[in-house]
Structure formats: C-alpha cells, structure tokens
Write a structure and sequence with these properties.
Length: 315
Amino acid sequence: MTTHLSPISQASMNGDLGLDYVFAQQEILEQLVDKLSVLGLITLYGDVGASGTTVLRITNWTGAGFAVPFDTMDSETAPIIPKSIETDFDSLSIARLGLGHEETWQQEIINREPGVSLDALVAKVPESLMLTFRQKMTVVGAGFADATGDGAAQWSFDDELDLATAFLEQDGTFAAPNTMRHREQFTDLRTALRGEPAYNTPEIQNAINSVRPGGGAFDFLGFSNFASNDVTEATGAHQGFAWTPGAIGWVVGNSMPVKVRNPSTAMYIPQFGLVIQESADSKVATALYNANAWVGFGALTKKVFPQRRIISKVH
C-alpha cells in the first residue's frame, strides 16, 4: 500500500491508479469490439506483398478437404496418384484515416468546460469509426462482380427469390448470408410481399414492416438483412449487396510504433490501428484532439465466399 500525504496530489496517486486515459482506452476498445460484431466483418491476417509495402496478401487455396474425394482403387496394389492443389491470394491495402476536433483557448476559458475534451472524443470515436467501417463496406460491396436485380426497375419478390437461388446453388455457402440494402430497397420488398398471398401473413408482414432502430437486422429466406442510406448509387441504381461472413474483411496496421509528442495524453488501440492524441498550437491559441487509424478493407474471392450485388432503381 502507498501512503499519500495531505494534500493528496496527482503525482502521488499516479503510480498506483494510473491516468484517466488508460481507462478511456479500454472503454474505446470495448465499444469498438461490441459494435463491430454486428457488421459481419472479419479481421484478416496475411503477408506483406513486399518490403515496406502497405499491401497485405490473404492466401486462399483449394484441392484438399471437401474439394477432393478419395479415389476408388482398381486393385490391391494400384498406386495412389497424388492430387494437385490450387493457390491464389487477395490483396488489401492499409490506408490512413483521420478525425480531429479543435477549439480556441478563449472558448475553454470563457464559455464552459472544453467542448471537445478527451472524454468527449472518447465517447464519439467508436461511433465515427463504425460509420467509416460501414461506408467502406458499402464501397467494397458495390464492387462485387455478380449482381441480381435490374437497375431500371424496383426490387421485386422474384428478384428476392433469384438472390436466394444464387446462394443456394453456389458451393461455399457455409454460413447464413447477410445483406446490406438501401432503405428504398426494403420499401420495394415490403411492397412486393404485400402482393404475394403465400407471404401475406400477419407474422411475415409484422416481421418485415416493424420499425427497427438503426436499421437493425431481420431474417427472411435465410438472409440477415440490414438497412443503411450509406449504400452507394451508380447509374441511377442502388448498389446493395449480399455476402457470407468472410467475403468482406479488413486489415489493420499496428499503431504501437507511433511516437507522439505527448505520450501522457495519448491513447493507443493497436487492435484497430488507432492512435488518439492531444496537442496545442500556442501561435493561434487553440487546443487540438485528433485520432488516426491505419486500416484497409476489401473483398475476398467469391470462389470461397459467395457474394452478390443487389441492384434496383432509385426512387
């Protein structure tokens, strides 16, 4: 136990209890882990493409396990012919993401407590990072090569059945798929289901028409469906997408080697490539808080992870 003489000072307490930013760091980590679990993203690990590069290669291969059966031998002494395998890789690039807030010293002195304090930034960084993740996901999903739907027509129930069929007929659908659609695409689906006698039941209508805060998921035909206005548009069509877990992944750069000016007011969250620091500019009398993250997003091969765009007309 440490004896703290009166008056108790921060310098005395710091040795046992640490600084506030240590607890804030854990709070950010827990919030990010909790929020990330609903996005259907996976963390990828691979090899750097070359020395000093920001590209990571994610290896995939086939020719073993479920991809190849045993041969029936012609005789007791027939030789076993070794099988070949196939290898490939996907490349994902790490990029720098940044977020900052700034206010004047006079604002801090005259008006109120710092409006963009470290605590305030802690409370908002997870939301901002999740927004960025979702936006990056929609860009990746809009790049899927295969598509279901018609960019010149509203989404129909037949389109929904075609989407399910595409996943049912493709090898590799080992987990329940997710969809991310624009909210107008859900409006189209609700409208289409009202005209389908087999699905015009109170249970189904309640499931698809219930309001879900934040675009939360509902299940239909095996898909866990999410809604977001971040879904992109191209040539007048919404670019929603469907994927099995693993089709969209992210890579992260370890932020621990970063050397900041004021380590005592900085936070490192290397699991998300994140560094948050506080600084000041005495020339213009301002306080600045900024966050940097080094992450990358991309799609893995559709041979392993089924994936498909969901396209329909913009209202």
